[in-house]
Amino acid sequence: MPTSGTPDEHTLDAYDFDLPRERIAQHPASRREDSRLLHLDTPTGDVTDHGFADFASLLTGDEILVVNDTRVLPARLITFKESGGRVELLLLPRNDEDTETMARCMARSNNPLAEGMALRMATGAPPLRIVELLESGRVRVDCSEAGGVADAFGANGSLPLPPYIEREDGPTPDDEVRYQTIFARRRGAVAAPTAGLHFTARLVRTIQERGVPVIPITLHVGPGTFQPVRTPDLRAHQVESEWVRMGPVAANALNKARGEGRRIIAVGTTVVRTLESLVAPDGSFAPRELWTDLTIRPGHVFGAVDGLLTNFHLPRSSLLVLVATFAGREKTLAAYRHAVASSYRFYSYGDAMLIR
Questions:
Q1: pLDDT number for residue 4
Q2: Contact (CB, 8 A) for 211 and 56
Q3: Mean pLDDT of 93-108
Q4: Quick one: residue 147, left, alpha or beta (phi over 0 = left, psi -120 to 50 = alpha)?
Q5: In a 3-state reduction of DSSP, which class is residue 317?
Q6: Which residues in 101-232 belong to E strands, given as ranges?
Q7: How far is CA 60 from the centre of its chain?
Q8: Which domains does the chain have, with CATH numbers?
Q9: What average pLDDT does range 115-141 have in this prediction?
Q10: Which of 90, 66, 115 is nearest to 309 (CA)?
Q11: 94 within 8 A of 143, measured Cβ to Cβ
Q12: Predicted local confidence at residue 226, as pLDDT
C-alpha cells in the first residue's frame, strides 16, 4: 500500500512533473549525434550526463540493439470545403478495412463535416470525398479521383510534425530528413520512432565494431502516440492498436542473442511494445506480424527487454508510464527532474535517456 500522501502507481497523478515550456525542442540538434544522453543505472538509480556520440562507449559488447525501421508517411494534408473552410487530415496507418483508394483519417475542422463532402487541395488536384463519419473525429475518405491514397498524400501531403512543435511556417525541407531515422525503410507511420533519430551510419558502425548486432523490427506508429490519458486510473486506459512485424532474420538474431546471454536493448518505446507483444512465454521469438493492443503499465512483467534507449516524454503520458514501469517510477521521475534542471531538451527533437 502507498504511504500517506504518496500517489498510487496506478493513478495518472503519479506521473506528473514540472516541465518548463522552453525545454520542449522545436528543432533538432545541429547534427544527429550532437544531442545529449542521460544514463540511468537502474540498480542504483544513479544518473550521469553524456553526449549521444558516447552511446557506443556505454555498451559492453554483450548486448543486441533492436531498432524500428518504420518510415513516416507524408500523412498531413490540408484541404478545403467548397465554402473555403479549412480541413486538416491526418492519414491513419492502414488496416484491413482500408484499400488503395479508401483511407481513414483524423479530421480537424472549425465546422461539422458531412458525408459526401468534397475536400479540395490547394494544388488543384482532384478532390477527396468524405464517405463516412467515424467516431473520435475520424472520417473515411475516398481518394480515387486523386489517383488513390498513395498519390493523393504522396503528392500533396507533408510530414506530420507533432503538435507540440509549434512553428508558424510548419515543416521545413530539413525536417524531411531529420524527422526520419536512418533505419527508416517500411512506409506506414504517422510519427517517427524518435529514439532512433540520434543515430548516424558512423555511430552504427562503431556499435557493430564493438560486437553489438543492430537488428530492425517494425511498428507503424499511429496517432495514439499523441493521445492523452483521459482516465485517472491507468488500469482503465487502453493505448490504440498498432501494426507490428518481426521477420525471420530478426527472430533468428534475437533467439541467437538470447542463447548467447546477450541483453536486448530496445531503441525506443515502440520497440519495447513490439518485442513485449511478440515474445513467447519461454522468451523466444518467431516471425510474426499482427495488430497489438498491448498497454504497458504497472504490473506488466517484461519478458523481452533488458535495456531501453528513449527520448524524454510528456508528463502524465502513456509513454512516461511505460518508461516508469520498466525503470521504476521514483527512479524515472528523479532522472526527469535532473534532466529538467540540467536543461535537457524534451520530446521528438529532444535528447535521449539510456536505461539499463
A1: 42
A2: no
A3: 91
A4: left
A5: coil
A6: 102-109, 118-121, 128-133, 138-142, 186-189, 214-220
A7: 27
A8: 12-72+175-355 (3.40.1780.10), 76-156 (2.40.10)
A9: 95
A10: 66
A11: no
A12: 73
